[in-house]
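Hey team,

Filing this mostly as a record. A colleague (T.K.) asked me to run one chain through the structure pipeline before their review meeting, and I want the input and output archived in the tracker in case anyone asks later how it was produced. No errors, nothing strange. Just documentation.

Input sequence:
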Amino acid sequence: MNNRILIVDDEMNTRDGLRKALECPEWTIETAPDGKEAMEKLQQRSFDLMLTDIRMPRMGGMELLRRAREQWPEMDVIVVTAYGEVKNAVEAMKVGAYDYLQKPIDLDELELKVKRLFEQRRLTMENEQLWKDHRERSGLARLTGESAAMHKLFEDIRKVASARTTVLITGETGSGKELVARAIHDLSPRKDRPFWPMHCAAFSETLLESELFGHERGSFTGAIRQKKGRFELADRGTVFLDEISEVSPTTQVKLLRVLQERCFERVGGTETIKVDIRIIAATNADLEERVKEGKFREDLLYRLRVVTLRVPPLRERKEDIPLLTDVFLKQYAAENEIPVPTVDPAVIRAFQVYDWPGNVRELQGYVERMVVMCRNDRITVEDLPPQIGGRTERAPVSILSGDVPLSDVEKHVILEALHRNEGNRTKTAEALGIGRRTLIRKLQKYGEEAEARYPQDPGEEKQDQHRCDQTGTVH
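Output structure:
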């Protein structure tokens, strides 16, 4: 990726001399004779560094510096002062200049300063991107699983990570396709370079092209200045294109060229930009079916699926549910600064019966809800939503499916009947067709949970005390 330098000086020989001294393949250099023309160039495109003289007609270097710092604070500025004018240099540094040079300029010193500046900018950008990635991952950087399906996926990720090969990741919504893409990047030689995720369905066609390829000033309404796109910013890194099936036919043509030649033009521009990037795409749609429908280019599909990795849905790896649950429990307990709650085995059994149409993302959401909403430090089936086996007026299909122990089904039915009868044991026993003493024995077996949630009706308590006084036993 080229760094852009703008040299501003009213003496043509000085401008040309500085431009020749700094010429190299990694730097693109432009010049301006004064501050006014420099402002025009700055409004047309972005620069990484401006090297400006102080004394110039029309607009001097100090005024140019002030305006530049206000409008383009991300651009660095080095000012050039006449010999002995230290006060100008000090003032420039206070306004925000990166550094200064005194005339006559030592070209070796200039080159060293510029190289040091660009290296510092590169490290800063990489550190910012790494912190951004870390925050986005929220402690879930690793894919979690011990099932055979996940071990196969881990092996495939390790094999493909070291190559430049384009990868297509397929899988249902919420299955973890972006985590797979990040794992490929993290294990690759590009791991220290940027990882840029792009969710293609979130943008209109025009905005998506601008985000990917960048744009020139005036290329469309609202394009008030040049902008670099994700492909340019991710040079020597990885671009992840999620929901690739939603890209328009026009953008598909441009993507095909990037995959074939690793070059492109910004929207509205003519300059061809070459980059070294790896592209990873993902989809939850059947791309072959989209090709048959005429909605997706067949040649683009062939380029994308050089290697295809399938992320298994959660229903195909239910043996991973206890491990995933434990990971999410610890994560959300830490985020909410509370002790990690324990989980009844019945909760895990209910999780393993459920089919999880929303996959790992759905499980993650439910675990977060349980951590936040549980009444004590123990999560029970009563804390689950109805569709996974929580309390409802009718036993859910998962409870009655035959995959849950009979004792759990019995407990669920009895507690629900007790709930409907507002804790009245006599009415509950009649509704269930069992003796009252049988009901009480079963409730005693369920322990404090039943007593706390469904305390005995005061009227019944008096009757029981009367019987106890007469017979010494409770009927």
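Quick notes for T.K.: The domain at 143-312 is CATH 3.40.50.300 (Rossmann fold). Residues 107-137 form the longest helix (31 residues).
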